[in-house]
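The passage that follows is intended for readers who have already worked through the single-chain material. We present the inputs for a multi-component assembly, then the predicted structure in tokenized form, and finally a short commentary. You are encouraged to pause after the input and sketch how you expect the pieces to fit together before reading on.
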Amino acid sequence: KPDVSKTGASNERMLANFFNSLLNKKPGS
Amino acid sequence: SIEEMVKEKSRELFALCDKEGKGFINKVDMQRLHGELPLSDEQLRDVFDSLDNDGNGFLTFEEFCEGFGGFLGLNVS
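Having made your guess, compare it with the prediction:
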């Protein structure tokens, strides 16, 4: 069965990855 | 205030996704980020779906801002 807390954590990680990438992209782009 | 700073930063990041300045981000904008960001198509789709709170296919600045605030651990409304 799906582990909801784990899914939430991985979703959070994915969003963190996304925002971090955007923040890093900013200079020079 | 911190809230203002978050909104200001959100505006910059939002503009990176909404290149035409439409005022919203759609899935096509998101797909275009593939190649610019180290995320797969599927990850970008998941990010979009998780930020698009009402699931209408348009990611508004408010929704984006909320997501960014959440990433920072703040509650921006």
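Commentary: Chain A has a mean pLDDT of 80. DSSP finds one helix and no strands in chain A. How closely did your sketch match?
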